[in-house]
Amino acid sequence: MAYETLIVDINDHIALIRLNRPDALNALNSALMRELADALTAADRNDKVRCIVLTGSEKAFAAGADIKEMADKSFVDVFEADLFTPETEALLRVRKPIIAAVSGYCLGGGCELAMMCDFIIASDTAKFGQPEINLGVVAGIGGTQRLTRFVGKSKAMDMHLTGRFMDAEEAERSGLVSRIVPAKKLMDEAMAAAAKVAEKSTLTAKVVKESVNRSYETTLREGLLFERRMFHALFATEDQKEGMAAFLEKREAQFRDR
Ligand code: CO8
């Protein structure tokens, strides 16, 4: 399907989704969010896809929600529209792994979008921020909750209250991103990481994703029980038999998602 605000390529089991509003630094407007929800849902349902990479341009992953689109709205407008809620819920329902490849500005809703992915690979030019306070608002799609879980209260408060940007080094040091690579190598590294994920059993990858995400949503005791039961359950799969047999036979595993 052709999109107005996205470029989607599917190759070698990887769906690469690129935000594409260059004139607005990929600001998230309603059309982009709708298309993104559609593209992610389609990739999740596509049997050929085993991993998804979400990226922007070299200058901006996304500079936030579209301020031009929001500026004149009233409380009733945003409340009744429940702005971006169906779209972010669609993103969070995606069961296949999503890697965010971030270069340049990753601000406001852009930073929140990156944090909804499963992990973030950043270029050395990446700048993260939650500058909503400068506009007289607060983050609205998870920034106060997720950033705090990633980097802790003190740094999250600092980012949200001052609106300052965090460079890639600081983002890696504080646990927001998993790795930093030179800007020119960002897409090679992100696609290589996606290819690694795509080699695994997608069935097992979905269980890993659910288990790690559970750690954000429940008590340690419940999370440990969930993980243990998932571990037990995977012994009912062919991929567990194949993975362990391949190790013992010193060969590459051939997973079939069964
Ligand atoms: N929205 C709309 N347009 C934008 C945005 C944005 N967030 N960011 C940049 N643009 C546009 C600019 O208006 C400009 O367009 P034009 O050429 O037509 O004037 C173009 O992109 C290029 O931007 P700049 O000229 O400003 O580029 P600079 O390199 O000088 O500056 C910055 C780059 C620092 C990124 C600057 O553009 C900036 O500060 N942007 C705004 C960042 C921001 O405040 N983001 C937070 C937005 S609010 C938000 O994300 C809330 C999310 C929660 C929604 C929840 C709903 C429930």
UniProtKB/TrEMBL annotation:
<dbReference type="InterPro" id="IPR001753">
    <property type="entry name" value="Enoyl-CoA_hydra/iso"/>
</dbReference>
<dbReference type="GO" id="GO:0004300">
    <property type="term" value="F:enoyl-CoA hydratase activity"/>
</dbReference>
<dbReference type="InterPro" id="IPR029045">
    <property type="entry name" value="ClpP/crotonase-like_dom_sf"/>
</dbReference>
<protein>
    <recommendedName>
        <fullName>enoyl-CoA hydratase</fullName>
        <ecNumber>4.2.1.17</ecNumber>
    </recommendedName>
</protein>
<keyword id="KW-0456">Lyase</keyword>
<dbReference type="GO" id="GO:0006635">
    <property type="term" value="P:fatty acid beta-oxidation"/>
</dbReference>
<dbReference type="InterPro" id="IPR018376">
    <property type="entry name" value="Enoyl-CoA_hyd/isom_CS"/>
</dbReference>
<keyword id="KW-0276">Fatty acid metabolism</keyword>
<keyword id="KW-0443">Lipid metabolism</keyword>
<dbReference type="Pfam" id="PF00378">
    <property type="entry name" value="ECH_1"/>
</dbReference>
<comment type="similarity">
    <text>Belongs to the enoyl-CoA hydratase/isomerase family.</text>
</comment>
<comment type="function">
    <text>Could possibly oxidize fatty acids using specific components.</text>
</comment>
<dbReference type="InterPro" id="IPR014748">
    <property type="entry name" value="Enoyl-CoA_hydra_C"/>
</dbReference>
